[in-house]
Amino acid sequence: MTARVGKSAADRTRQKILALIRSVPHGKVATYGSIARAAGLRSGARLVARTLHTSIGLPWHRILGAGGEIKLRGDHSIEQRLRLESERVTFRGRRVDMKRHEHKFAKRSPR
DNA sequence: AGGGTGACGATCA
DNA sequence: ATGATCGCCACCC
């Protein structure tokens, strides 16, 4: 029973990342990097990706690489694109039109 | 304890 | 635009 709810710093970071991912609204997208920064990580994009990959029930298709690029490979990238297009997210070549769809996170609470 | 590994990102040739 | 490199963070042997 790995009932992890946030003991270690790593777990708290994970919870924070999960909350941010869940906060991206329908029709909008965010990047691994922006989420990492919103979570207070200097450069934890890879961690965001890992979290996304090891969790379920998240709007995973709304998370993209820098510049709005889909970073998945093969069929998965196709599914992601279809899911995005089904919520009216538009593309410019093979990247999402970030100009129109990038979700801005509120600045980190000036604690 | 140490080293390898990502759904990454920025930078440089 | 493409490929190599280095930095980052947590996880998995």
Tell me what you see in this structure.
It is a single chain. Helix 2 (32-38) crosses helix 3 (45-53). With 111 residues, this protein is mainly α. The model has no long low-confidence stretch (mean pLDDT 89). The radius of gyration is 14 Å and the shape is globular. The longest helix has 14 residues, at 9-22. 23% of the residues are buried. The protein has helices spanning 9-22, 32-38, 45-53, 74-86, 98-101; strands at 30-31, 63-64, 91-92, 95-96. Strands 1-2 form a two-stranded parallel ribbon. A two-stranded antiparallel sheet has the order 3-4. The protein has a single domain, classed as Arc Repressor Mutant, subunit A, CATH 1.10.10. The chain binds a DNA duplex (13 and 13 nucleotides) through helix 1, helix 2, helix 3, strand 2 and helix 4.
Q: In a few lines, what is going on in this structure?
A:
With 111 residues, this protein is mainly α. Helix content is 42%, strand content 7%.
Using only C-alpha atoms, the radius of gyration works out to 14 Å
Q: Would you tell me the structural class of the helices and strands? A: mainly alpha
What is the C-level CATH assignment?
Mainly Alpha
In CATH terms, what is the architecture?
Answer: Orthogonal Bundle
| Low-confidence runs | none
SSE diagram, text form:
Layout: H1 9-22, E1 30-31, H2 32-38, H3 45-53, E2 63-64, H4 74-86, E3 91-92, E4 95-96, H5 98-101
Parallel strand pairs: 1-2
Antiparallel strand pairs: 3-4
Helix pairs in contact: 2-3
The chain binds a DNA duplex (13 and 13 nucleotides) through α1, α2, α3, β2 and α4.
